[in-house]
Amino acid sequence: MQRCLAIALLTWKAAFRFRLFWVLTALLLLSVVLLPLLIKDDGTARGFTQILLTYTLSVITGLLGLATLWLACGTLAKDIEECQLQMVAVKPIARWQIWLGKWLGLVFLNLVLLAVAGASVYGLLHYRANRLPAREQQVLRREIMVARGSLKPPKPNLEAEVQRLFQQRVQQTRIPESEYPELRNQLMELVQAAQQVALPGYAKDWTIDIGLRRALLKDEPLFVRVKFFVAQTNATGSYLTRWQIGPPDRAQIQDLILAAETPHEFAIPPNLFDDQGRLFVRMFNGEPTTMVIPLDDGFEVLYREGGFGLNFLRGLLIIACWLALLAALGLAAATFLSFPVAAFFAVSILFVVLSSGTLATTITEGTILGVNHETQRPTAVWLDFMLLPVFKGLLAVINVVKDFSPVESLSTGRSITWLELLKAFGQIVLFMGGCVAALGMGILTRRELATAQPQV
Amino acid sequence: MIAAAPEQTTTPAAADRETVVAVRGLTKVFKDFWGRPKARAVDNIDFEVRRGEVFGLLGPNGSGKSTTVKMLLGLLYPTRGHIEVFGHSPRHVQTKSRIGYLPEESYLYRYLNSRETLDFFGNLFTLPKKDREARTEQLLEMVGLTQTRTRAVGEFSKGMQRRIGLAQALINDPDLVILDEPTAGLDPIGCREVKDLILALARRGKTVILSSHLLSDVEDVCDRVVILYGGRVQALGTLRELLATPDRVRITMPPLARETMQRVLELIRRDVAEDKVRIDTPTQNLESYFLDVVQRARESAETSGATSGHRVAAYLRGEGEPSTAPAKILERLAAPAPKVEAAEARPTAKPSVDDAKLEALTRSTPPPPAEVKPEPEPAADLAEANEKLSSLLNKPK
Which residue, among B104, B105, B109, B153, would best test binding to A if mutated, counting the most A CBs under 10 Å from its CB? Predict the structure, then answer.
């Protein structure tokens, strides 16, 4: 361990001696201070705080992420190119320990920088919040600067319904077997639509099982968060909805005019669940157009789970997990590529991860270059045959680590649980980071270090 | 150059000692990106280095010296052949704790200062903090960098970088020291110090592999050499074997009276033809002359660069460290006696005198003992070497 720590300390010293630490600190602090002056919000304290949190945390993550990749590639590739690593490798330290030491140094550096930036954001938020009128402070502390848990209605078993309908159709109509997959897709869309729509003048019902939490949530206000789409937009972009919440005998009713395609939150009085801990929510569509409330993120009920401070810390730690993975990626690239190529390679990988949405769409569509509208067949079957499995593999790997979005959770006052943090550490650092580290350590161990000639 | 058979020849006592490095059929072919052979840097070489030897790897540029050294250190992998260092593969991590390496260039971290550099490498050997600090001080003193300990290595001159490089190679008190062009970039004082250090290490039973194309360096310190050319062994053996001209003899003495000289020559001419006898006045070695001049200058001026080194670090001389581990004491006790044989085999700058011929010659004209370069005496202890070094540099002991 002494050897690993010596390498870690060396990386740390390099960051200081090359003034990287100070430059990054200055950039991070500038972004925290300057961004609030530049960003535009909806004029409310809540909106401003949400945007402030989103922007500053995103900028901090982006800045540290790129710096981590750059530094990780540089610290190892430069050591190899300038032959300093030869001096280290002839000492009684295994190559994997050198790699690990570099990684530990980068992670430690990131933790310190993240702590500085995080503390600045936290301090700024509290400073600005304390200067607001008491009512707005209350709103902030209730909806943003808080850790809120989420309750969603149970997911319906769509597959079973699709299967039932599929059997029915196949028995009723002769359909070629080659079209079975397409039929299944269409049925799935149909079933999903049935679950998501609220027809004009009709209602959509949800039942939330609060379960054992009902004791904890007694006398606590709850929040409904809803997002919907409309089949036909109107001139104002706003739509009338009526909400009936609670058991039928003491349901609370309120009318709300809400914009489509935007998440909305509104508070509901406490203690509206029944004796069994069930909360009934019904939304009437008061417009002459169909409303679609997505199954995944269309409706949920939020409740206070904990304070903001710890939640913020857990969010930062998840960002640190990401940075640790990026450090591993940069170091792994640097074990077999020169500095500029390694940096390019690592940044490219990062872009692939960030564009995983495109990958997902391609896989869903089943073709990369699209379908020829005349023949109704994929444009390049051979390309799909070769690359689609690769895309699927990539997406499966990316999805392991991409599900954690602490910035979004923090900006919407959602709880990031310890379990979630533990999962993030396990999936991002231990699993993905471990795979990348094993690759990097393996290559470094096998590599002939003395083939590199110093650049004079 | 006298060509020698490539078979292993060692000094008699060295042959009994533990083999530190064994190289058999070693070949290194550098390949291009597509795996096609690009250059055959080392071609089927064999040699062994035994404990306590100072072994020279000689050859012109591109002869395969550095490639061989890097394979010994596990920085390059052989294409064919076998290397053992202390009985293990060069890539065996724990074996590396017994090796010190000075590369041909300064590959040190430019942003660290001298102290931090030594502390960093000491940490890689997992030396306790107290030992690291003590050794760092002694090494900085030894290489004459105590006054520049807080300057970044990147700001050092090439010579100073060699000095700190040498210090890092010795931080672990290595059993095998591999020095690649150790005197490159050093001033004559530094060169002399390095050579004295190598001799001091050898006296402690340490093994030194010296790669150089500076023949005088090798001649001054090496017991055995291998000469490489085109990646192949061209000659291998002790310097005595390789350099001796057994049919010649040289006598050095103070100027004689003309009549005495005539008598001596007459005596010699009875056995040797006139044209085979050569008489001249030996000149002083430039290195010795330079050291004298610098020594005189040092007494009246200061320098901001490296000062000349002082004492060989105590732990390298085998003197006790404050926290000497029992294992170290044991090792020192188990180390072979000061190597008379190695010293015998090491030629001095002037050819040594053949004992038999000297005996024959002294029957008629006894040579003045003070002027004849004596065979090196077996060192009683390292203090003597240190004393010699100190007197050379006119430093307080």
Answer: B109
Question: E strands along A307-362, which residues?
Answer: none
Do A244 and A284 touch, CB atoms closer than 8 A? Answer: yes
CA–CA dist B300, A89 (Å, integer): 44
Interface of chain B toward chain A, CB-CB under 8 angstroms: 30, 70, 73-77, 93-97, 99, 101, 103, 105, 107-109, 111-112, 116, 120-121, 123-126, 152, 168
Q: What is the mean pLDDT of residues A91-120?
A: 93
Q: Do B103 and A94 touch (CB under 8 A)?
A: no
- For residue B223, the enclosing domain spans 12-244+286-338+379-393
Report the helix count and the strand count for chain B, using DSSP H and E.
15, 9
Q: Could you say which of 3.30.300.130, 3.40.50.11690, 2.60.120.260, 3.40.1350.10 is the CATH number of the domain covering A197-305?
A: 2.60.120.260
Rounded distance between C-alpha atoms, residue A444 and residue A424, angstroms:
27
Q: How far apart are CA A230 and CA A237, in angstroms?
A: 10
Chain B residues in contact with A18 by the CB 8 A cut-off are 111
Handedness of CA A337, A340, A343, A347 (dihedral sign): negative
Could you read off the pLDDT of B376-393 as tens digits, one per residue? 434 344 454 445 434 433
User: CB of B160 within 8 A of CB of B108?
Assistant: no
Per-residue pLDDT, averaged over A209-219, amounts to 81
Find the angle CA(A323)-CA(A324)-CA(A327) to the nearest 5 degrees: 85
The SS3 assignment for B49 reads strand
Into how many domains does chain B fold?
Answer: 2
Chain A residues in contact with chain B using a Cβ-Cβ cutoff of 8 Å: 2-3, 5-6, 9-10, 13-14, 17-18, 82-84, 86-94, 448-451, 454
Residue A360: other Cβ atoms inside 10 A: 15
pLDDT one-digit tens code per residue, A254-287: 888 988 888 888 888 888 888 888 888 999 988 8
B228 with B260, same domain: the answer is no
Determine the residue of chain A that is closest to B97 in CA distance.
A92
Q: What is the 3-state secondary structure (H, E, C) of B280-334?
A: CCCCCCHHHHHHHHHHHHHCCCCCCCCCCCCCCCHHHHCCCCCCCCHHHHHHHHH
What one-character-per-residue DSSP string does A203-235 give? EEEEEEE-GGGGGTTTT--EEEEE--EESS--S
Q: Is residue B2 part of a domain?
A: no
pLDDT for B391: 43
Give the C-alpha distances (Å, rounded to integers) separating B305 from B151, B182, B309.
11, 19, 12
Name the residue facing B108 among A5, A17, A87 (closest C-beta). Answer: A87
> Is there a domain that residue B3 lies in?
no
- A264-268/A278-285 β-pairing: unpaired
Residue of B342, B311, B370, B384 lying closest to B143 (CA atoms): B311
Q: B239 and B262, same structural domain?
A: no
Q: Do B19 and B86 contact (CB within 8 A), yes or no?
A: no
CB within 8 A of B79, min separation 6: which ones?
Answer: B27, B28, B29
Mean pLDDT (chain A) is 85
Confidence of residue B299 (pLDDT cuts 50, 70, 90): low
* CA distance, residue A383 to nearest chain B CA (Å): 27
Size of interface A-B (CB pairs under 8 A): 77
Q: Count CB atoms within 10 A of the CB of residue A218.
A: 10
Q: What is the pTM of this model?
A: 0.75
* Segments of chain A assigned to CATH 2.60.120.260: 197-305
Contact B112 A13 (CB under 8 A): yes
